[in-house]
Design brief:
alpha/beta; MutS, DNA mismatch repair protein, domain I; Nucleotidyltransferase, domain 5; MutS, DNA mismatch repair protein, Chain A, domain 3; six-stranded mixed sheet
Length: 853
């Protein structure tokens, strides 16, 4: 559009084209009266995406300009639809009063709305905008939620997989980078997740914002945060006083989980359909406020490792369970609290309304009672929270005096300020009210004078006040009535009189004064609330924590959870462990609990059993127990002793990696490699059927190599399920490995899952029985039984003829070499340092040897 000759268009269109030049990557919403209008290419895009009519308007050129528009009062819904499709929207408003404008009214873009800066979203979801920086050794990420002001910063090793994993965890709507950052590295992630990328090279910010990043320890972290901050201030064009100081997220402060682990364990949404229902968050979110729910979700994604804080939360749940009447009082109070964090965000933005002030007033009204309830509990932490609450009594009383109980959404049409708050406003309104009473009396008088019973006095913005006569009674209008014809309609005529015109002047003058004064009074209240943003935010943080603790207390009773004991050593003893989500959704049967015991001498549980028998459930419930314990919740068991873990690594379920386009097996190996490289002795590893994605012997070799590496090198608690029954012999050579199996029984060829974990390996696969349960054709099942018998006979024959152990390379002696190739292979094997190999490297060596044969 930069090539368009502006001179051929009208002044208004020239104004639009000049503004559009600075916002070529956005759809410009150009304010004209009560509408936002879009022109040229923007009109084509908006009419298609919003499914609104495309029209055209004269603009001085011989050809009409393509145009579409949306009503000003309904614009938010249309903007949200465009933002959700990845577009940016530039809001262009009139910036001077049309009544005093000389020539065309001045207009300018007052805000650029992008996917990461859209705060009008009504959902409770967290919406982040992020910035990425890079140096020789690290990536830095700064991100914030503009609707609440929450800001964060973290440093990552310079590993692209770790960066993408963290971005998948944060799930930003928009990423801000400099021209020096090569975004092609993130191309597949960006395309898969639908993330908008914006460029900003400017890191200069006003000194008033220095406090926001003063805690960031490195120059690179500050630079990344300032780039994000600069972009937000430049696009939003306002002060943003609600932004909070950036919180430094250190990996050592939280239980580390990558995006695959979060997804595999279904912490916030299900694997099958990305639905909240069926996730851990869905199960335990009993919060009354949106703030509490968001706080709980953040805790689930970043559980604690600080034992003291965790124990404090256990103590709080204990006292809440004991003082159930006070707990219910607090829960009832929280039902009156609105989303203070987002209300404060709108106050900071300057786009708050009367309803926000009414919701703020109601939310503040509960603070004195909440303070008192918390102080009644015999608990040091709740006492601390009580002491930290600022009741803001004076400000609440101000809102109580000033704002009506149910104010309108609009702020420039009156109806917000209570009678009795301002004497001048009351005086003006009373004068207008008296005149309106006079109008009612006039209507009755005119009906009696004319004899026209259906005569009525009305008003519209174009013609003002009028006397309306039905068409069938126009003949009754006489000259002595003093009526002057004003407007002709199909069913009536409208008239005015000199007296009515005089009263109209008084009414409209009073209403205009009233609306202007009421708007100013509203602005004064908004400015007063702005001064208290940080105090309101502090109260909101306390309410969020209290709401979460009430929710954790509720689920501890509803789900029959118990307080875990955090052990100092690596001892795990969970009796009658349950998977809380599976237990909740089971309708036709009861959940079968199982013990999970790994003492200091046992690090690895090798789990065998039929498909569908519950191996994955057993592993997942262990992980969920750890996560619940480390967010400070009670856990599903009859008793539980668990250590504090520093990380959880999982590979559960088979799925291709859609972000990177890798196969199931490659992703399986990458997950395994991630765990092996990053796990410590204090980590928890859950591997489900590792090796199944490749040839049998390859998979078996890799599975054993991984188990041995974990056993000898990492020595962390590991749950390893497998369908390779040959691996169960490893308990003879690996002293810290113990076999368990999920029991089942065969009743006349029909498998019955008992879902009970028992010591030792399973003695049968039951694969064909499971296929039968899946109702495969009967003939196919019978044929598979015949094939199985043949394979088992052949396998026995091979076993009798050869005593070579698949995994014992010492069986290959040099004197057995038959030719040069075998010699070369054996030499390569001898040169391999098994202790230093990762599973992926072992696979590459094995593949190289196979290619030589």
């Amino acid at each position: 559009m930069n090539n368009i000759d502006k001179s051929q268009y009208t002044p208004m269109m020239r104004q639009y084209l000049t503004i559009k030049e600075d916002y070529n990557d956005a759809i410009v919403f150009f304010r004209l009266g009560d509408f936002y209008e879009m022109f040229f290419t923007d009109a084509f895009i908006a009419s298609k995406e919003l499914e609104i009519q495309l029209t055209a308007r004269d603009a001085g050129n011989k050809d009409k300009v393509p145009m579409c528009g949306v009503p000003h009062h309904a614009a938010d819904a249309y903007i949200e639809r465009l933002i959700n499709k990845g577009f940016k929207v530039a809001i262009c408003e009139q910036v001077e009063d049309p009544s005093v404008a000389k020539g065309i009214v001045k207009r300018d873009v007052v805000r650029l709305i992008t996917p990461g800066t859209f705060i009008e979203n009504k959902s409770d979801e967290i919406s982040y905008i992020a910035s990425i920086g890079i140096n020789i050794n690290n990536y830095t990420i700064s991100y914030l939620d503009l609707s609440t002001g929450d800001s964060y910063s973290l440093v990552l090793p310079k590993d692209l997989n770790i960066l993408i994993n963290e971005l998948l965890q944060i799930s930003p709507k928009e990423i801000v980078i400099s021209n020096f950052f090569d975004e092609t590295h993130l191309e597949k992630y960006i395309k898969s997740e639908g993330v908008v990328v914006s460029i900003n090279n400017d890191i200069e910010t006003s000194e008033i914002f220095d406090n926001l990043f003063s805690d960031l320890p490195s120059k690179e972290e500050k630079k990344t945060f300032k780039r994000l901050l600069n972009y937000i201030i430049r696009t939003q064009k306002r002060e943003l006083m609600h932004l909070k100081k950036a919180v430094v997220l250190e990996a050592s402060s939280f239980l580390r989980m990558d995006s695959n682990t979060t997804r595999n364990l279904e912490l916030t949404e299900t694997l099958r359909n990305n639905n909240r229902i069926g996730s851990l968050f869905w199960l335990i979110d009993k919060c009354e406020t949106a703030m509490g729910s968001r706080y709980l979700k953040r805790q689930i994604l970043r559980p604690l490792v600080n034992k003291e804080i965790i124990e404090t939360r256990y103590d709080t749940i204990d006292i809440l369970n004991k003082e159930f009447i006070t707990k219910q009082e607090i829960k009832d109070l929280l039902k009156n609290v609105y989303d203070l964090e987002r209300i404060v965000g709108r106050i900071s933005y300057g786009n708050t309304n009367g309803k926000d002030l009414a919701q703020l007033r109601r939310s503040l009204s509960i603070l004195p009672e909440l303070k008192e309830c918390l102080s009644k509990l015999d608990n040091s932490h709740t006492q601390f929270l009580s002491d930290s609450i600022d009741s803001l009594t004076e400000f609440h009383n101000l809102l109580e005096r000033a704002v009506v109980s149910d104010p309108p959404l609009t702020i420039k049409e009156g109806g917000i300020i209570k009678e009795g708050y301002n004497e001048l406003l009351d005086e003006i309104k009373n004068k207008s009210l008296n005149v309106k009473e006079w109008l009612k009396e006039l209507e009755e008088t005119e009906r009696e004078k004319t004899g026209i019973k259906k005569l009525k006095i009305g008003y519209n913005r174009v013609f003002g006040y009028y006397i309306e006569i039905p068409r069938g009674q126009i003949a009754n209008v006489k000259d002595e009535f003093g009526y002057t014809r004003k407007q002709t309609l199909s069913n009536s005529e409208r008239y005015i009189t000199e007296e009515l015109k005089q009263k109209e002047t008084i009414i409209l003058s009073s209403e205009e004064k009233s609306i202007k004064l009421e708007y100013q009074l509203f602005i004064d209240l908004r400015d007063e609330s702005r001064k208290l943003i940080s105090v309101i935010q502090k109260n909101a943080n306390i309410i969020s924590e209290v709401d979460m603790m009430i929710a954790l207390s509720i689920i501890s009773e509803e789900l029959n959870l118990i307080r875990p004991i955090l052990t100092e050593d690596a001892y795990i003893e969970i009796l009658d462990s349950r998977h809380p989500i599976v237990e909740k959704v089971l309708t036709e049967s009861e959940f079968v609990p199982n013990n999970i015991i790994l003492n200091q001498d046992t690090n690895i549980l090798l789990i065998t059993g039929p498909n569908m028998s519950g191996k994955s459930t057993y592993m997942r419930q262990m992980a969920l127990t750890v996560i619940l314990a480390q967010i400070g919740s009670f856990v599903p068991a009859s008793s539980a002793k668990v250590p504090v873990f520093d990380a959880i690594f999982t590979r559960i379920g088979a799925a291709d990696d859609l972000v990177s386009g890798k196969s199931t097996f490659m992703v399986e190996m990458l997950d395994a490699n991630n765990a092996i490289k990053n796990a410590t002795k204090d980590s928890l590893i859950l591997f489900d059927e590792i090796g199944r994605g490749t040839a049998t012997y390859d998979g078996m070799a890799l599975a054993q190599a991984i188990i041995e590496y974990i056993h000898e090198k990492i020595k962390c608690k590991t749950f390893f399920s497998t369908h390779y029954h040959e691996l169960t012999d490893l308990d003879k050579s690996l002293p810290s490995l113990r076999n368990v199996h999920v029991s089942a029984k065969d009743e006349n060829g029909r498998i019955i899952f008992l879902h009970k974990i028992k010591p030792g390996p399973t003695d049968k696969s039951y694969g064909i029985n499971v296929a039968s349960l899946a109702e495969l054709p009967k003939g196919l099942i019978e044929r598979s039984k015949v094939i199985l018998n043949d394979l088992e006979r052949n396998h026995q024959k091979l076993s009798d003829e050869s005593s070579i152990n698949l995994f014992n390379f010492s069986e290959f002696e040099e004197e057995d070499n038959g030719d040069e190739l075998e010699s070369e292979i054996i030499k390569e094997l001898r040169d391999v340092s098994i202790e230093d190999l990762t599973p992926l490297e072992a696979l590459n060596i094995l593949n190289k040897i196979i290619n030589k044969l």
